[in-house]
């Protein structure tokens, strides 16, 4: 009986360890990026609408888009920052070819004064689950 318990414990520990390694490896594949944008002042409202629609659609329909979180600077409303998380580089490349991304990119091209893309690495990504409108 004790031998059976030990074997079960070892099997459980091994499964847990393999699952942890698998999870860690999956996390290593994720692509994290920050996009900093400046929009022409006359286009701020139209850009906000386009960005919000694009983010909502991408997260809803693309398995590989894990997060698209956009914020607007309160002091300088023409400045936007977007935090992007993709399951992998492949998921990101797929995202760039989707109809909703192409529509967003083409529709906002003349609204954007400047765009800076910054590749980042996760340090602490904590978030509470809350109801989103």
Key descriptive features of the protein:
alpha+beta; 4 helices; 4-stranded antiparallel beta sheet; Alpha-Beta Plaits
Oligomer: single chain
Order of helices and strands: HEHEEHHE
Through-space gap between termini = 54 Å
Low-confidence stretches: 6-14
Tertiary shape = globular
Number of domains: 1
What's the total helix number?
Answer: 4
The average pLDDT score comes to: 86
Short recap of the structure:
With 133 residues, this protein is α+β, with helices and mostly antiparallel strands. The chain contains four helices and four strands, in the order αβαββααβ.
Question: How would you sum up this structure, described in words?
Answer:
The protein is α+β, with helices and mostly antiparallel strands and 133 residues long. It has a single domain, classed as Alpha-Beta Plaits, CATH 3.30.70. Helices cover 47% and strands 26% of the residues. The chain has 4 helices and 4 strands. The protein has a 4-stranded antiparallel sheet with strand order 2-3-1-4. A hairpin with a 6-residue loop joins strand 2 and strand 3. Helix 2 runs antiparallel to helix 4. It is globular. It starts with a helix and ends in a 13-residue tail after the last strand. The relative contact order is 0.19.
């Amino acid at each position: 009986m004790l031998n059976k318990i030990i074997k079960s414990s070892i099997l459980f520990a091994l499964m847990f360890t393999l699952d942890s390694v698998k999870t860690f490896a999956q996390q290593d594949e994720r692509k994290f990026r920050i996009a900093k944008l400046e929009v022409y002042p006359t286009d701020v409202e139209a850009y906000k609408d386009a960005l919000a629609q694009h983010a909502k659609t991408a997260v809803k329909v693309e398995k590989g888009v894990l997060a698209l979180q956009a914020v607007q600077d309160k002091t300088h409303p023409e400045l936007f920052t977007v935090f992007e998380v993709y399951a992998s580089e492949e998921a990101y490349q797929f995202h760039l070819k989707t109809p909703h991304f192409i529509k967003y990119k083409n529709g906002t091209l003349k609204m954007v004064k400047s765009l800076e893309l910054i590749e980042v690495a996760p340090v602490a990504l904590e978030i509470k689950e809350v109801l989103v409108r």
